[in-house]
Amino acid sequence: MGKKAFITGITGQDGSYLTEHLLDLGYEVYGFARRNSVTEHQQTRIENLMNNVDLTYGDMLDQSSIDKLLKRVNPDEIYNLAAQSHVRISFDVPQFTVQTNALGVLNLLESVKINAPNAKIYQASSSEMFGNSRDADNMQRETTPMHPVSPYGCAKLFSYSLIRNYRKAFKLFASNGILFNHESPRRGANFVTTKIIKNAVLISKGKINTLELGNLDSKRDWGHSKDYVRAMRLILNHTEPDDFVISTGETKSIRDLCKIVFSKLNLNYEDHVKINPKYVRPDELSYLCGDCSKSKKILGWKPKYSFEELVDEMLEYFL
Ligand code: NAP
Ligand code: G4F
Questions:
Q1: Looking at residue 38, what is its pLDDT?
Q2: Residue nearest to atom 5 of ligand 1 (CA)
Q3: Separation between Cα atoms, residue 53 and residue 17, nearest integer Å
Q4: I need a labelling partner for 53 at 20 to 30 A (CA). Which of 28, 77, 85, 282 fits?
Q5: What is the pLDDT of residue 39?
């Protein structure tokens, strides 16, 4: 019989790709879905997998739902992907963000300790934890100091620390993947890659004329979600629990992305992109470029998608 994996956040971008990956490898996959008033759209990303996954209602804020699932399933591996994952929105709903992204992880760890102490836990940590900190070579790596600049980043740093603390104190197999931005055609519409690509396509078809954005000068290290979910499984199947950066090592500004996308559609982004202060954040992480040498060396992981291929796949999807 295959291993049993429990994925929180299974309905999200990464949850859907991870489910496909684990099913391909012969895993049994269990997941939480939250109650939502619009049930029709809730499972869109995993629609084609519904016959092969065990989905139950659950929420990271409801300890009883975690306890019940762990007691029933006793999973071998737990992938904690559930989060309020939008950085700007974390300034609008800081309490919900901290409850889910920080206290939700505490709920999970406490439940694992009692109900499934042998399960291995993957925590979806984030490059947003670094804030505006970088090493002398302009990169971030596992040892770079972390000074987050958003409620989202602060909550993720709290949960990152909890994972390390429970690993040492209670000998849990608990690991952090410190993932840099990763995208795909399944990325939410209000993240900058999808927002630019989807709207540039609408402009190219004459359906709209303007795209409103915030800060065009921040830089991000963008990879493909499919590559990054492979890394999650490798992290949990390493011989010991540890923390790993997953990134591409290349960085581009939001302005670069606009230029590339609009020019692929034979358009000039300057004719269409307008700045709306509504999308500028109260504080901003201005530069990300990750060094994933440790993951390459220890896990044998490397990305298969180039930036160009990622953009082309997203463009093709929206076209
Ligand atoms: P996503 O598409 O926004 O998915 C988030 C998932 O979490 C959704 O399934 C969502 O369910 C669920 N969720 C939210 N609040 C919850 C709660 N209180 N209880 C249970 N489930 C809850 O995010 P993603 O891009 O796949 O990212 C996956 C994880 O990696 C997140 O933890 C994110 O913070 C982290 N991360 C992402 C990136 C990136 O660039 N994508 C980089 C570093 C780290 P609903 O659909 O019901 O809202
Ligand atoms: O696409 P974004 O919203 O992603 P952000 O804030 O980097 O967060 C993502 O990556 C993190 C890893 O570093 C994850 F942990 C997190 O869950 C999420 O997946 O914004 C990227 C950049 C920012 O600098 C933002 O200020 O794009 C800039 N931007 C400019 N105009 C915009 C917009 N971002 C959004 N979402 N919308 C705009 O209109």
A1: 82
A2: 12
A3: 13
A4: 85
A5: 78
Reported in sequence order, the residue ranges of 90-136 that DSSP labels E, i.e. its strands, are 120-126
pLDDT category of residue 40 using cuts at 50, 70 and 90: confident
Question: Which of 17, 187, 191 best tests ligand 2's pocket when mutated (most atoms within 8 Å of CB)?
Answer: 191
pLDDT value of residue 15:
98
Nearest CA to ligand 2 atom 17: 85
Q: How confident is the model at residue 149 (pLDDT cuts 50, 70, 90)?
A: very high
For the whole model, what pTM was predicted?
Answer: 0.98
- C-beta neighbour count of 317 within 10 angstroms: 15
With a Cβ cut-off of 6 Å, ligand 1 is lined by 8-9, 11-15, 32, 34, 36, 59-61, 81-85, 100, 104, 124, 126, 179, 181-182, 188
Give the nearest ligand 2 atom to 216 CA. 30
- From the CA of 191, how far away is ligand 2's center (Å)? 6
Q: What is the mean pLDDT of residues 52-59?
A: 96
Dist. CA 197–CA 319, nearest whole Å? 9
- pLDDT for 26 equals 97
CA distances from 100 to 67, 84, 131, 152, 207 (A): 16, 7, 20, 10, 38
φ/ψ of residue 179, rounded to 5: -95, 135
Q: What angle do CA 197, 8, 299 make, to 5 degrees?
A: 80
Phi, psi (degrees; rounded to nearest 5) at 180 = -80, 170
Ligand nearest to the CA of 187: 1
Question: What share of the chain in percent tops pLDDT 90?
Answer: 95
